[in-house]
Amino acid sequence: MRHIVERHDDSSNRPLTEPVFLILASLADQPRHGYALMQDIQRMSQQRVLLSTGTLYGALRRLLEEGWIARFSQEDASREKQTYQLTPEGRRQLEFEVGRMKQLMQIASTRLNGTEA
Amino acid sequence: MRKIYGAILRLYPAEYRAAFASEMMDTFEQSMADHNKNGRLRFLWFAACELGGLLKGVVVEQLAKRMAQDSYITSRCSVQPNTGLPAEIVEAQVDLERLLRSMEFAIAHHDFPKARQYSHEERIARARLEQLMRQHREDAIPPEWKSSHECA
User: Fold this and answer.
1) B122 closest CA partner among B97, B91, B87
2) Which of A70, A83, B24, B49 has the largest count of CB atoms under 10 Å?
3) Over the Cα atoms of chain B, what is R_g?
C-alpha cells in the first residue's frame, strides 16, 4: 500500500498530467489547431503518446477554463479553424512544471551516480 | 465510423457540444484519413482508441457538468430548517428550491429543454408544497373550533 502526501503552496501548482504537459509544451513555440496539436504531441513523444480527440478536447476545455490557453478563429484554406495559444498564466505553469521536473531529475541523477553525500 | 463518432458526440453535455463538437469532428476526420493510409491493423487500433477516448470523455464531461450544477445549487439554496414546520413541508421547500436553482443553472447554460423540464417539475413541487401547507394549517385548527364554525 502506498501513501503519498503532497504539499502544494498553491492549488494551481499541482503536477501536470502528461497530456496537459504535452499540450502546453506544444503551444509554447506557436499557436496550433486541434489536429496540429495531435500531430505535434505524437512527434514530441516519439510516437509514444497518441491522444484521442476525446482526451485532447477534454483537456483543452479544462485549460480554457483555467485561463492557461486562449482560443481564436483563424482562416485556413477558406474555412474557419479554432486555434489555441498559450496565455502568460499557461506559460508560467509550464515553466513551473519544467523547474519541478528539473529538480527531481537532478536529485535522481545524483543518487544514481552515487555522488550525494 | 463517422456515424458512430457523431452518435457518441451527442451524449456530451449540450454546452460542450456547442463549443467543440464540429471542431472535434473535423479533427477526427483528418486523423482518420491519416491513419487510413497506415494499414488495416493500425486503423483498427486508432478506431478503438478514438471511440474509447470519446466514451471516457462523455463520462468525464457529464460528471463535470453534474458537479458544477450541484455546487451552484448548494451555494444558492437559501432554505433554512424551520423547526416549527413538519419534516415533509421542509423537505418540499428544499425540493422546490433545488428545482428553482436547477432551472436557473440550465437557463444560464442555454440548456433550454432541461430548463423547461425543471419548470414543469417546479410547478408540481409548488402545488404539492401549497397542498401540504393548507393541510398543516387545517390540522393546526382545533376540531371543536372547526365544528363550531361549520355550524355557523
Assistant:
1) B97
2) B24
3) 26
Task: Kindly report, residue by residue over B50-107, the tens digit of the pLDDT.
Answer: 999 999 999 998 888 888 777 766 666 665 555 577 888 888 888 888 888 888 888 8
Q: Would residue A10 count as lying in a domain?
A: no
Q: Which residue of A has its CA nearest to B49?
A: A52
Which of B26, B46, B56 is opposite residue A54, by nearest beta carbon?
A: B56
State how far residue B100 is from chain A, nearest Cα, in angstroms. Answer: 26
Judging contacts by C-beta atoms under 8 Å, the chain A residues touching residue B53 are 51-55
ipTM, two decimals = 0.76
| C-alpha cell, A31 | 499557436
Q: How confident is the model at residue A88 (pLDDT cuts 50, 70, 90)?
A: very high
Name chain B contacts of A60, Cβ cutoff 8 Å: 20
Q: Which CATH number among 1.20.58, 1.25.40, 1.10.3470, 1.10.10 corresponds to the domain B79-151?
A: 1.20.58
Give the position of cell 401540504. B132
Task: Assign B138 to helix, strand or coil.
Answer: helix
- Whether A101 is in a domain gets the answer yes
> What is the predicted pLDDT for the residue at B88?
82
The answer to whether the CB of B103 falls within 8 A of the CB of B122 is yes
Owner of C-alpha cell 486541434: A34
Instruction: Please give the tally of structural domains in chain A.
Output: 1
Reported in sequence order, the residue ranges of chain B that DSSP labels E, i.e. its strands, are none
